[in-house]
Amino acid sequence: MRTRLLFVTFLLALSLALTACSPTTIYTQPAPAERTLTVTGSGMVTLTPDIAYVSIGVQTRDESANAAIAANNARADAVIRVIRSLGVEERDIQTTNFSIYPQPIYDENYNQIGVTYVVDNTVYVTVRDLDVLGELLDSAVRAGATTIGSIAFDVSDRAEALSQARLAAVENARRQAEELASATGVSLGEVQTISYYDSTPLPYADSVRLNAPMAEMAASVPVQAGTLQITTTVTIVYTLR
């Protein structure tokens, strides 16, 4: 009898020990998903350009490489002198390309009969006074420029315009959020995230290769700066109450 009692007591103690060592699983109710509202707003500011960028090139060719280079140097120097005479500072004239390459000469039967050397010299000019831009292009062509291209207009200081566009975009997004919240019977909570993108495209004119008959015609064409539009798009995520 005593042995049986001791065995039962041992089994009870073992059961209690195993129960104490077993992990306890606690079940909790999942928290409800936070309700949010995402809106995208835009803001735009229109500006009048006050600066222009233009590439001006000189191309010469000759059967002698030295002669082609000498002719190009003389004409390029003349173009740069004219540009500087119209108030463009030296820091605003940058050489972006100087190259020389041979070009085969063929007869009517496509047999190579010689080589001519082509020299290209291109400068990138920043024009800070748009009132002289037309005269500058005219004078550059008359001085020997053969290529006028990649004309772009810009605004020298965009900081204030960008700030206005961003504020307008945020206000536009907020109005949308308030309208949607009111229409659905909820109210806006805190702002969770904000992302934005600024867009300031530059209007470019295509490059134009000029020959002698075209030069007089092209130089007389007036240049219009037009306007620039700075646009900001903002995406805001609000919590809903």
Q: Could you characterize the architecture of this molecule?
A:
It is a single chain. The chain is α+β, with helices and mostly antiparallel strands and 241 residues long. The protein has two domains: 83 residues, Translation Initiation Factor IF3 (2-Layer Sandwich); 104 residues, Alpha-Beta Plaits, CATH 3.30.70. The chain has five helices and nine strands, in the order αββαββαβαβββαβ. Strands 2, 3, 4, 5, 7 and 8 form a six-stranded antiparallel β-sheet that branches. Strands 1-9-6 form a three-stranded antiparallel β-sheet, with helices on one face. Helix 2 runs antiparallel to helix 3 and helix 3 runs antiparallel to helix 5. The longest helix is centred in the C-terminal third of the chain and has 25 residues. The chain is elongated. The chain starts with a helix and ends with a strand.
CATH architecture of the largest domain: 2-Layer Sandwich
Q: Using the coordinates above, name the CATH class of the largest domain.
A: Alpha Beta
Q: Please report which band the strand proportion falls in: under 5%, 5-15%, 15-25%, 25-35%, 35-45% or over 45%.
A: 35-45%
Number of helices: 5
User: What string, H for helix and E for strand, traces the elements in order?
Assistant: HEEHEEHEHEEEHE
Please tally the β strands and state the result: 9
For the sheet with most strands, the description reads:
6 strands, antiparallel
Count of discrete domains: 2
Detail the poorly predicted runs.
none
The portion of residues assigned to helices is: 25-40%
The structure class reads alpha+beta
CATH superfamily of the largest domain: Protein of unknown function (DUF541), domain 2
Mean pLDDT: 84
Whole-angstrom Rg: 37 Å
Taken from the alpha-carbon principal axes, the silhouette is elongated
CATH fold-level name of the largest domain: Alpha-Beta Plaits
Distance between the termini: 71 Å
